What does this fold into?
Amino acid sequence: MYALAIHGGAGALPRVPFTAAREHAYRHGLMQALSAGQRLLERGGCALDAVEAAVTVLEDDPLFNAGRGAVLTADGSVELDAAIMDGCDLRAGAVAQLRHLRNPVQLARRILEDAAHVFLVGDGAERFAVEAGFALVDNGDLITPDRREQWQALEDQLTRTGAASGTQALALDQPPLGTVGAVARDHGGRLAAATSTGGTAGKRSGRIGDSPVIGAGTYADNRSCAVSTTGHGEWFLRTVQAFDIVARMRYGGYRLDAAVSEAIMRRLPDLGAAGGLIAVDHHGEIAIGHNTPIMFRASVREGEAASTAIY
Ligand code: ASP
It folds into this structure.
């Protein structure tokens, strides 16, 4: 049996409630991504291909904070992070601070396959991308008018309040929304996870969150589960959140849903951390948890109807 879950970020309710059309667009985007992964799993494809396909669709959708449409740094540009992991043999690929790639998850996959390294950042990662045949784009091509407007609003707020520590301080009281991720179990019982993001709005250039860090935002191990997180990355880095779920199952005997709810409903709130995660275990059970008002998410299991949810 196969199982697939995806997310499009967790965060606060928007100041202006979503219109029906916007909510529909989010659900449509989630369904497109879910279907891309599901089609592969149905045909006997592997979990790794399914999570890469689903995340690629979400990166291409400008509504989400990944690929084109990602949030901007304090200095008004896009810096992208992503990771992918194969639960079969713990191979992993990760990238950060990419400024010229449309689909960071595909570069992360290439690093995974290349196997010489796990994590490449910045210029070095982009040089590897060119050698591997990826096309580079202008940073401006990754910026949408909506994100430019959001950045301007943060800048204006900064000027009004005279906040000393930059837009990052303002961004931190607005939990981010729109990071994307996927976890899958395929027919062969293989697990995989992938996550991709522009990080937090107004972040300091050079900041790397949890998403591309193996064990923090992304992890997969066939013996337990595959996990992709979303929320304030600083906390997920500190709690090594994705691996924490795996470890609870492997060493603590937790079931997947108990491990997820312990982390999301107890440990993270105790620390003041907001966010959510998706996970799938080796039996194909899916668990999704969030302690934020919103988490864009969708899932499907073999023989069951696909579903999407926001609130
Ligand atoms: N976790 C991501 C980061 O901190 C942001 C998000 O999930 O929205 O970079």
